[in-house]
Amino acid sequence: MMLPDKKFADFINQNKLFEPADTILTAVSGGMDSVLMVHLLKSSGYNFAIAHCNFQLRGQEANADQEFCKALANAHQVPFHTINFNTQQYAETNKISIQMAARDLRYTWFEQIRQQYNYTAIALAHHQNDAIETILLNLVRGTGIAGLHGILPKNGLLIRPLLFLKREEIAQLVKDNGYNYVEDSSNASVKYARNKLRHEVVPKLKELNPQLEKTFENNLKHFRELETLLELRVAELKAQLFTYRDSDAFLQLDAVKALNPLRLLLFKLLQQYGFNETTVDDLISALNKHSGKVFEAAGFKLILDRDQLIITPKSKTVFEPLSIATTDHSLNFGNYKLTVLHDDTPLIIKDNPMAVSVDSAKLVYPLSIRAWQQSDSFYPLGMKTRKKLSDFFIGLKIPLHEKDEVPLLVNGNGEIIWVGGYRPDERYKVSENTKKVTIFELYKI
After folding, report:
1. One-character DSSP codes across 259-323
2. Is the distance from CB of 144 to CB of 276 less than 8 angstroms?
């Protein structure tokens, strides 16, 4: 029987999987699907190599599959790459399932081989029925719209040139052409979720709709178009709503509250920073009542401020308190350099919030410089009453994430001398009785 070379080439061209002159690394298990892919690539005149993973989970059967794939590569006179994995040990070490371990190991290795030998892409033998099973799995486990588009013909460097075929069509082509292949005994076991769907659920669905594959093919097109529409809308919103300063991003709360549908669009806007749907639900619940609340993802913090959302990278630096001796003239703290100058002139610094002169006689060494704490309070310059530093920050509308980076100059008796960059303490100001001053100045580094 003739192979569907034209349909194969048309599918490759329509989905821009690769160019005719490219060399493709082909993942081959030895099963029916990957064997047909090899024969189609060869028959259509494409350049390819074969890669096979032995996960050492099925004893001699796995070794026999490995030998079969080697012989297949030799028969087609193409390069052959293979590797043996201790999949069981990898799964136990990383506390993941065997299926996830095998997936991690093979995709990492495929990419290593692709880079080492400069192959254009990695071809996988998924077909239409695999796409149906993937959608059903995603629906069962819970998914967003992205989970409904199924298996894409091209996803980065992974390509799937058999997605134009059904499983039954592949089986018929293999049978009619007399191709040898190996059968993985684990494919018959229903202890794996995908196999359970394949053997027990999909047949029942086909009783309801004999044209299930065709229906899902149409559904996939609709889902992909909806996903594209959503991504375009999200891109527009990002351009409209986000403002940036240094490494921080800002969204105005009024604009966030006006999103419709709020949950979906807010999740898509925050997804790039690693925030999940649970966090988005918590954030929505807090939008009208919890200013100052902080939400965390792996690399970012999201701060619900008075009138805006602030997204800021988690600080990789813990600002440990630094001691300042009388002999110190310069030191670094966080993103600042602090210089210390002793002067016999009772100089008063004006109009420079990054510098302060204090009465040297009131200093108790060693001084220290540190980040703020909730219990901190001081007497802001010009005031005769004590003020909590948290209230002082609120009054100046300093975002929560920036408070943590404000350097505090602290006397040896525990009193705050200077809220660096903002306000000195009234008790340490230079007066007519001052004989000597110490000048502290901060520089951004």
Report:
1. -SSHHHHHHHHHHTTT--HHHHHHHHHHTTT-TT-EEE-SSEEEEE-SSEEEEEEPPS-----EE
2. no
More confident: 192 or 221: 221
Q: Tell me 58's DSSP state.
A: S
Joined tokens for residue 215: 């229906």
Give the pairing type, strands 300-304 and 308-313.
antiparallel
Token pair, residue 76, equals 């087609």
CA distance 203 to 201: 6
Structure tokens at 8: 């194969």
How far is the C-alpha of 265 from the C-alpha of 83, rounded, in Å?
Answer: 44
Strand pairing report for 377-378 and 423-424:
unpaired
DSSP letter for 154, please: E
pTM: 0.57
Strand, helix or coil for residue 140? helix
Tally of CA atoms within 13 A in the half-sphere of 14 that contains its CB:
12
Q: Helix count (H) and strand count (E) of the chain?
A: 15, 22
3-class DSSP assignment, residue 122: strand
Banded pLDDT at 441 (limits 50, 70, 90): very high
| Residue 436 · residue 360 · CB < 8 Å | yes
Asked whether residue 368 carries a pLDDT value surpassing 60, the answer given is yes
Nearest CA among 97, 98, 164, 156 for reference residue 130:
164
pLDDT in tens, 11-47: 999 999 999 999 999 999 999 999 999 999 999 999 9
Q: What value, to the nearest 5°, has the Cα angle with vertex 377 and ends 376 and 378?
A: 135
Rounded to whole angstroms, the Cα distance separating 324 from 315 reads: 24
